[in-house]
């Protein structure tokens, strides 16, 4: 596992796969049984604590503190002078829609607002590296989008960001690269597009005529004729499917094509394809009801 400076790196896998344990090892919260870890090239991560912002999976803030005081306090622990810490806290709260919560106590905030305060506390000391453990957990769709915007904004500011999640849609939108993990094993490392190529696409056709020749076209592994919709045919393709040879052969069949749509696999589908039963606890969260991510080519 290697994370490059300035990239958003998604650490993905089902519940219990080992994501939190790995992040805690990176931060020296847990000592590894074997192997090596380096943060900023140093085997002693705590030497660089002031350069790291960490959002733990278990949330926790002092409930009697105001939102501004809680953020400022945690920034001061990382070496930010008190006046500057309070100024940054107020600015962050206002920038991310919590201006009215500056003087409110944490215990009086909604769960979503309190979680946003905790996220803001990880960036108040201006860290170079953000490590966010399941940052979207417990957030409603609106606040999930706010957090996606915040992560994208921090990337533009040059931060290196690692976040763990079992919800694939966030990684699809945010990550430069991903690591898929199951039962502590590295299943795949690379870009989202590289991951999608590990599973074939699905092709939906509306045709006039006999569909039988479609099953023999290059790259096709299975065909299903929809019994409820005349002329609708679904084709499954092999990994690494190439559209050009398929389309040339399709034209040569002479079948009249009324509609053709190529549907890319979602990251959730790719993971299930790679690990099978180990994917229990994984969520597509927001995918269509049939699990497909559509793309017209």
Summarize the helices and strands and which ones pair or pack.
Layout: E1 8-12, H1 19-26, E2 52-55, H2 67-77, H3 82-95, H4 111-121, E3 129-133, H5 141-156, E4 160-165, H6 168-174, E5 177-182, E6 185-190, H7 192-196, E7 202-208, E8 220-225, E9 232-237, H8 243-253, E10 256-263, H9 267-275
Parallel strand pairs: 1-4, 1-5, 2-3, 3-4
Antiparallel strand pairs: 5-6, 7-9, 7-10, 8-9
Helix pairs in contact: 2-3, 2-4
Can you tell me about this structure?
The strands form 2 sheets. This protein has a 6-stranded mixed β-sheet, with helices on both faces. The protein has a 4-stranded antiparallel β-sheet with strand order 8-9-7-10, with no helix packed on it. The chain has 2 domains: 8-193, Rossmann fold (3-Layer(aba) Sandwich), CATH 3.40.50; 200-264, Alpha-Beta Plaits (2-Layer Sandwich). With 297 residues, the chain is an alpha/beta fold. It is built from 9 helices and 10 strands.
Write a compact overview of the structure shown.
This protein has about 300 residues and is of the alpha/beta class. It has 9 helices and 10 strands.
- Secondary structure tally: strands: 10
Task: Work out the helicity level.
Answer: 25-40%
- Looking at the structure, the CATH topology of the largest domain is Rossmann fold
C-alpha geometry: elongated
The topology string of helices and strands comes to EHEHHHEHEHEEHEEEHEH
What is the CATH C level class of the largest domain, in words? Alpha Beta
| CATH architecture designation of the largest domain | 3-Layer(aba) Sandwich
Major β-sheet profile:
6 strands, mixed
Write out the CATH superfamily name of the largest domain. Answer: P-loop containing nucleotide triphosphate hydrolases
Secondary-structure-derived class: alpha/beta
Give the overall pLDDT as a whole number. 89
Uncertain regions: pLDDT < 50 for 5+ in a row? 286-297
- State the strand order across the main sheet: 2-3-4-1-5-6
Beta-sheet strand percentage? 15-25%
Quaternary class: single chain
Integer-rounded radius of gyration: 24 Å
For the record, the count of structural domains works out to 2
Distance between the termini: 33 Å
